[in-house]
Amino acid sequence: VTEQPTTRRDVTLVPRVSVADAVHDQLRHAILSGAQAVGTRLPAERALAASAGVNRQAVREAVQRLRQAGLVEVHQGEGVRVLDWRRTGTIGLLLDTAVRPDGSLEPDLILSLLQLRVVVLVDAAREAARHATADAVAELEALLAAMLAEPDDTPVSPRFGYWEALVRASGNVAYRLAFNTQFAIARRVTPETLAFLAAGARLRDRYVALTAAVAAHDAAAAADEARAIVSPIVEALEGGS
Amino acid sequence: MTEPELLRRVARTSVPDALYAQLRDAIVTGAYQPGEALPTERELSAGSGANRLAVREAMQRLRQVGLVEIVHGGGSRVVDWRTTADLSVLPDVVGANDLALQEELTAALGRFRLVIAIDACTRLAGRPLVETDRERLRGLATAADAAGGDAAVQIGEEFWDALFEVLGSIAHRLVNNTIRATRLAAPRAPTRFTLRPGRVAIVDAIEAGDAAAATVAVQRLFDAEL
Questions:
Q1: Is the Cβ pair B115, A70 closer than 8 Å?
Q2: CA A192, A193, A197 angle in degrees (round to 5)?
Q3: ipTM above 0.95 for this complex
Q4: CB contact under 8 A, B84 and A180
Q5: Number of Cβ pairs closer than 8 Å across A and B?
Q6: Mind listing the pLDDT tens digit of every residue in chain A (241 residues)?
């Protein structure tokens, strides 16, 4: 294998993908902001390609992504219709709307996401207590041991590794996918905000009790301990709003 | 009276759609494992008889859904979608020709809807509802309980959408959208989504401000417990 072909392929591939991304981002913004109203049709592929100065393949890719996210409906021969994203969209839309480009938050959307997080993680703990294998329990215990070995002045972290293992132990693939989105959103916020939102992660005794409840297959106790860790921040924000 | 048409419209699957479906099935059934490289665009084109543009479109869709990633140099590698993908992958994945996977997803989403429904109903029971919201929820609950067959599915979905809208939590609503879309895309009637009546009992409990009764009513409707 020589260097030459690889380089040539890179050069053609990268700009083409980012052109489709750019078209997608513009269209998505127009739809989420309401500039392109619900029920209207997007201009024809040819017209969109011409106005963006890109090829039709890039437009087609962008429209496919909008369809995937539940923002538009595509009918062969009838064009592309804008849907009401609140009725048809997927949770991934919050990835780009809940966190502003500077890392600060849209308060209503973040509260809504945190409320959902409580529901998912509490039931994941409950189901993990019911279904966790010996290997899954051992993994949680190892993660807990690492957590307890940290010096007291270690900056607070959201314990993603621990929660990821717990959600995996629940055996519910939909919870895993919802967790993936929450994780992706958390990676976009500033460290200070993340530390604030993850305040419950300071409660190491609760993690000890949660791990013990999962190991003992005590579903009710596991749910209670998970709730004690993840719900105080939601109650604080609800009280403040 | 109009003349009968000589030909009826032929249902068409576009070439990129067909390619996408084949590759998606190969990935979610494990014929290609996470970390494994997919054949190149050229190889796929030669193997399928499709042109390169169609192959590229199918590959882009796989990437968008979160089943593959583009690696340095332009090839594609299968990713472990359970670890990396968003919920939006589910309406596509449920269409794969894999009965065990369909049942797993149906159970997982049934559980997800149970917990978001209980969360929504208990929180709605703790606050006063405006008259228009109450009437809307009661109207849809009554209609859904009285309906049968496909209409029950349709109105039942409208009821949940309205309930999460009244709750005002966009994250719940977007998750519910994926549950609905996956349910409607599933090739066979999912067994864990019930068509039983019982939504009026939920609205009764919410209006009475009785969170415990709302939880019981939701569990009864879903024939499942927390």
A1: no
A2: 120
A3: no
A4: yes
A5: 131
A6: 333 434 433 333 334 457 888 899 899 989 988 899 999 999 999 999 999 999 998 898 899 889 888 899 998 778 999 999 999 998 888 887 888 777 788 888 899 999 999 999 999 999 999 999 999 999 999 999 999 999 888 887 889 999 999 999 999 999 999 999 888 888 888 888 888 888 887 889 999 999 999 999 999 999 999 999 999 999 998 886 5
